[in-house]
Amino acid sequence: MSRFTVNGQPVHYRMDAKTPLLWALRDASNLTGTKYGCGTGHCGACTVHVDGRAVRSCMVTIEELEGSFVTTIEGLSRDRSHPVQQAWVAESVPQCGFCQSGMIMAAAALLEKNERPTDADIERAMTNICRCGTYSRVREAIRRAGRMQRGEEATTAAPPPGVDPRDAARDVPALKVDRP
């Protein structure tokens, strides 16, 4: 029985200890943002953070995570306000979208360690495979997210899925406009 924390919540999986984290997240916790791609750790679609490091969840068993802190794409930010998520949208990175959660998690881990990554740093950290070939947009989104994290560029939080942007805007204090 494995006990660790997922997205800030303690979990106790009563599954075979050799179960890959990917399947515990998807099947037991219904956290389906973490995708199954290859099952061999090559594609990166299943990337999550374990104690702040980008990890391929198909390659680590739940018994190996005892006492760890795991963050999935769902836990990165509830309202999609994380700088990487904001930059991803601003740079129009997603195409088919399948690899995106893993890419975002890898990019967020990189920027947590290095807010000013060089192209070489990005190439070393971003080993995820994108079948659509959006690598140049990924690189620019990572640079933009770094600027956002450093406060050099503004972020605007996207509304949660299923919320109309006009409805989300109602929660934002209105600007006072003097009208004749």
Q: What do you see in this structure?
A:
Residues 146-180 are annotated as: Disordered. Pfam families: Fer2, Fer2_2. It comes from Allosphingosinicella indica. The structure is a single chain. With 180 residues, this protein is an alpha+beta fold. The protein folds into 2 domains: 2-76, Ubiquitin-like (UB roll) (Roll), CATH 3.10.20; 83-149, DNA polymerase, domain 1. It is 34% helix and 12% strand. The chain has 7 helices and 5 strands; from the N terminus they run ββαβββαααααα. Strands 2-1-5-3-4 form a 5-stranded mixed β-sheet, sandwiched between helices. A hairpin with a 2-residue loop joins strand 3 (47-50) and strand 4 (53-56).
Low-confidence stretches are 168-180
Q: Based on Cα principal axes, name the global outline.
A: globular
CATH class of the largest domain: Alpha Beta
Amount of helix: 25-40%
Read across the widest sheet, the strand sequence of neighbours is 2-1-5-3-4
Query: How many beta-strand elements?
Result: 5
The average pLDDT is: 89
Question: What oligomerization state is this entry in?
Answer: single chain
In the residues, how many domains can be counted?
A: 2
CATH architecture of the largest domain: Roll
Tell me the strand percentage band. 5-15%
CATH-defined fold name of the largest domain: Ubiquitin-like (UB roll)
Strand count, sense and barrel status of the largest sheet are: 5 strands, mixed
Query: What is the SS-derived class?
Result: alpha+beta
Radius of gyration: 18 Å
Give the CATH superfamily of the largest domain.
Beta-grasp domain
Distance between the termini: 68 Å
